Amino acid sequence: MDCKKKKVLIVGSSAKEYAVAKYLSKNPDIETIFTAPGNFAVEEFSKRVDIRENAVQELLEFAIKNDIDLTIASSTEAIKADIAGFFSANSQLIFAPGADSANFAIYREAAKKFLYKLRIPTPKFGIFEKQQMAIDYVKASPMPILITTDEDNENSIRSVCSGVEHSKICISDIFLRDREKAVIEEYVYGHPFTFYVITDGYQALPLAVVGDYKFQEDGEAGLFTRGSGAFVPDYKVSFDIVGHLMENVVENILVSLQKREKPYLGILGVECVLKSFDNYVVTGFVPFLKEHDAQAVISSVGADLYSVIEACANGSFADDYDEIPIKNICTLSCVLFARKSNSVITGLELVDDTTDVGHFNTTRNNYLEYLTNKGRTLVVTQTGSTFTRAKELLYDNIDEIYFEGMKYRHDICSE
Q1: 151: region left, alpha or beta (phi > 0 left; psi from -120 to 50 alpha)
Q2: How far is CA 266 from CA 41, 49, 309, 384, 406, in A?
Q3: pTM of full prediction above 0.85
Q4: Which long-range contacts (CB under 8 A, 24 or more apart) does 396-400 make?
Q5: Is residue 119 part of a domain?
Q6: 74 and 131 both lie in a single domain
Q7: Is residue 51 part of a domain?
Q8: Same domain, yes or no, for 284 and 358?
Q9: Which of these, 259, 241, 119, lies nearest to 202 by C-alpha position?
């Protein structure tokens, strides 16, 4: 029996990598966790490595030199650079999809075309490389519409527009950037959620159903963001919907990729909108856990997530697992936004030990105080025996945190 403690490399620098590193740091079978490039906060339980997440050759050399047992690449930039291909070709165990297999989960154009080809319900959409064609499409479209760039990241443009003039401004902003495409789709009213599965490319098992909050302001108002809060499990999504998603979306996608000889290995998120109790549409995909809900998902998993990930990477997943157990708890996450960078964050030491505070991309000053980064700065995650109790504890602990211009939703799980 191999009793050697493991060395793990995590590739990425945001809140999801923070959550994964923090979780793995509690595993007694893991000796060292390296995070590349990580953020300052991850140094609490991980060794930061000064290598860019898309510098896959340097990352490979580091993994070989340091006898890394498993690499977890959750960074989209690393996946795009085909870190999985580089590592696999050099016999390095890695948990990440290949660049070709993950293309549909990274780019909205590829996602929409994939959904259309597989006849999976998705909002009506158009993809444009020329500004005037996009504007002409908007003029003929019923409002509201969702306008985004092809790739979704923290710097992407995304906006729900209720009129032509607002739409034209968003389109103009997109085309001011080099090589950008505008993706315009019908905005669907309903309850947004993300269905996560973990897969070795051949077998997939449900991991979590997450209720999502996208707008920055209470009551679904304000800016349309990459995520302002979440709750797990999503009690609004029925078992029938989950079963339908597994059979008609996930399995169809995996079979299609297998036929192309591009199996998808990793965590896949299917973004949906629940239009009614028994009716949903798929709006897109994500190639790992989203930053604002990573800790909530990890907290809800009843299995040793490291062992599950390792089994996917080494090919024993189908033999070792026929389900992923889920804890009987309720978990909420709330994102704290900053209006500007470099404001001192206080009160973190006052947060309860049962509360997780994840960092997006905070920095530190000479006094080792954490500083804000404009936009999504912290994500506070709280578990409880009920949603009512979890919500009470969540907001009690948020009240302990302060930085200038702090903004967050007060209505997580208030429905």
Answers
A1: beta
A2: 25, 23, 8, 28, 34
A3: yes
A4: 396/352, 397/351, 397/352, 397/355, 398/334, 398/336, 400/347, 400/350, 400/351
A5: no
A6: no
A7: yes
A8: no
A9: 259
